[in-house]
């Protein structure tokens, strides 16, 4: 995990709590390091979240393997797939693809466990 990732996650948390000006400050810290123009401090809470989802995290963390987990956390996997890859989205099942199956050996250790939805036992 990189420092920029930590700053962007913290900015997301601050924004969610209503501290949008502080959140913008942390986003701008990441942008200054990359020599990118700063965001205006007048953005609304919704605009900051949209910016994090569509611009800041995808650009800053490209090819680092965190995008899927961001989409799951924001609960926008389905709509993002429909917008960007309709063919893949046709096979996407929200209740199945947000979770991984629990490995079989874990059931051998604890037979009371229940498999995640759509994976069987």
UniProtKB/TrEMBL annotation:
Keywords in alphabetical order: Cell outer membrane, Membrane, Signal
Coiled coil spans: none
Cell compartment(s), UniProt: Cell outer membrane
Residues annotated as transmembrane: none
All residue ranges annotated as the RagB/SusD domain in the record: 1-118
Primary location class: membrane
Pfam family, one: SusD_RagB
GO cellular component terms given for this protein: cell outer membrane
Cross-referenced SUPFAM superfamilies: TPR-like (SSF48452)
Signal among keywords: yes
Protein name per its UniProtKB record: Protein containing RagB/SusD domain protein
